[in-house]
Amino acid sequence: MNQATVEQVVDSSIRVLPGAEGWWAVSGSQIARLPREAVPDVTSRRLTEVAMSALAEKGFPRVVEDSNYAVTVLTATACNLGCAYCFQNTALPQEGSSAPPRIKTAVLTPALVTQVGAFVRQQMTSSRLETSSVLIFGGEPLLNPRGALGVLHEFGQNNMRMSEIVTNGVLLKKQLSRELEDAGLHRVQITFDGRRDVHDTIRVTRNGRPTYDKILSNVADAVASTDLTWNFRVNVSHRNLDGLETVIDDLQQALCGKTASFHLALIDDVGLGYDNDVVYSAENAERFIELNSRAIGAGMTVPVSKPLTDCPYCGVKGGAQGAVVNADGLLYSSWETAGRAEWAVGTLSDGYRPTEELDDLWVACDFDIAEHGTTEETRGFFDRVDGAALDDMYLTEDPASAPMHVTTQGRS
User: Fold this and answer.
1) CA atoms within 13 A on the CB side of 272
2) Do the Cβ atoms of 94 and 69 come closer than 8 Å?
């Protein structure tokens, strides 16, 4: 078997990570603890035949054929914020401005919502898939709340398994959060850009106003009045790496014990002049581990990173497993190109372009970013960070709720 890291997988998608008391084997949602002798060669990260057999006896990895069609729908391409690093900006803002030029404005209409539903049903039938999931995206999707609610209602007729909205949270008022939940929304993803004073110089409105307290207040209100789950992304750069403990503490207070996940992510340079000096180094891995540990201690979970090849939107050419739909009805291969007409790969009404026309247009998420380190540095970073997160989340857990423990002792 081959080494398993962020980008490479061992047989049937098993990823092997170093842990404090041995090794972690990860495959999808399955997690297993392995003793040190299961991986005799740290460099190759190869499992012994005995370890492979022990995992197999416990049903690991579990091969499950995914029957879900995953769709990202942009309900609005405009945004009420002016984040300078956004990949949907088409140029840098003028000096002194907080309003960078953006992709063409479009709003998802009720007629297009109906078309999205028909398109998804057709794709599900063609691919023989039984369920659907939707990620409501923008711009800022809540600039078109009617569209967001319409998408949720439409997917409710398409055997919806999961629904999530990516919003900056500024417009997520208590009443709207209830309406979204009633329409079928399961999870909300919100991004922060550092502690209050730093966030309020980066994630500002297009006229330069702060947003940190408004977002936290809306989260607290929604937490108190709904059963939605939460995914908090914290963007990281040299501008905000210090003081992120404060963000975690503020989120803990707003959550009041409700379920949430926590994800640290480096801000990407997409060629618009927004640099980021933070790289995938051993030193920064320890900083991420420190922050993740604090988040876990605050009751949040830290998901293990996944390779982009697992992406249902861009992972398979031609939209057989998923689709990205812009607010104007154009289809794209990834959320990063959505709204840029020159990258369109089809339309709701006509479907995808012929295969030979997709070769130069079908790109993966993060296809145009500057690297944060070499391949070796990136793998080492995520292996270290993810293994430490698993240690923090599970080594002190009640054995009844811990991942499966695989022993290789007494085997020949």
Assistant:
1) 19
2) no
